[in-house]
Amino acid sequence: MTIYLDYAATTPIRPEVLECYVENLKTLGNPSSVHSAGQKVRRALEEAREELASSVNCDRNEVIFTAGGTESNNLAIKGLFWKQRDSDSKKNLIISAGTEHHAVIDPIEWLEQHEGAEVIWLKVNSDGALDFQELETLLELRSQEVALISLMWANNETGIITDIKKVTELASNYSIPVHSDAVAAFGHIETSFKNSGLTAMSISAHKVGGPVGVGALIVARSAKLVSLTHGGGQERGLRAGTMNAPAAKAFALAASKAIEELHAESARLQALRDSLISKVQASAPNAKLTGGASFRMPHNAHFIFEGCSGDSLLFLLDQQGIEVSTGSACQAGVNGPSHVLVAMGRSIPEAYGCIRVTLGSDSTEDDVNAFVNAIPKAIEGALKAGIVNTGAN
Ligand SMILES: Cc1ncc(COP(=O)(O)O)c(C=O)c1O
Question: Which residues line ligand 1 (CB under 6 A)?
């Protein structure tokens, strides 16, 4: 039997969501067709938009369905950047942080390389908290040049939560658009779009019990973006292509369920997670919890195991039937140190030695105990293997 403790990577699809998805897949019709079959699917799509809008706390026409978090981030970042620079050529500066997901870092670096954008990566402290003073000073000095700010709501590796309202309050003094990657936060903590002051917010279905391959970019009605795709002009002209009504329905249902259960489930998972942290710290003296505990996602525990490689630990835990994640950058099969920990000022060996445990709907105290029981053997093996390929201190 395996124990899945990697809910931040993806979540099991809820049975009722799967049923809804399959049922809707059986319905024939293109939502853009004017005949009855098309209009039936259009109605399903619009119901999904309405339902998702209520979970996000936004207007229904602010929901732009996409193929997931990565696409939403690309649309927000490139779309806002291009629109801003088209309107004023001075607006060439993007502000973000080094702890962002690669689905934010990479489109920004792409704009830097291909569009001559200037980028400033804000500093975070060793707890992962953003340097708001740096942001404030930067805006005071260079607000005229800022095309957009993109900062994640919750970090997918460490679970550290950013005060997004504080970011939008600072930016609003200069009418600078703010995008937030809320993929790791939505459905787990409160993320009201209306209250956030955001211009755009990315969310993804498979992090909340929905299917992989569907997400949304929530775009404020007043916001202007350039579309990345051109074709049929669907989704307010921001996402051309036949809309995926079955996936939208499934996403909307999964989101409703997640929001309905949010308070009870986050309290349950937080208690379970706190028990896991104290048990790990009692049994593994080389375990160091990363990040500030007071502003961490309720289902996330992220440790550095000194002297170990996260990859070895992951492998040795997997052999014992425990599925966790290193949370480190793993691109095209090449594992590297966690760029998030590096941005938090951790050493390279530390950034290689982390394990992320994320709990979810099926997690129990038995799962926590199984992880805690498996960890000493995994540490013993990982210490023997040592850390290879660190390249530096
Ligand atoms: C914070 C964050 N942003 C974006 C993504 C990408 O989302 P998707 O898998 O839907 O493309 C992920 C997924 O791991 C994530 O955790």
Answer: 68-70, 101, 103, 152, 156, 181, 183-184, 204, 215
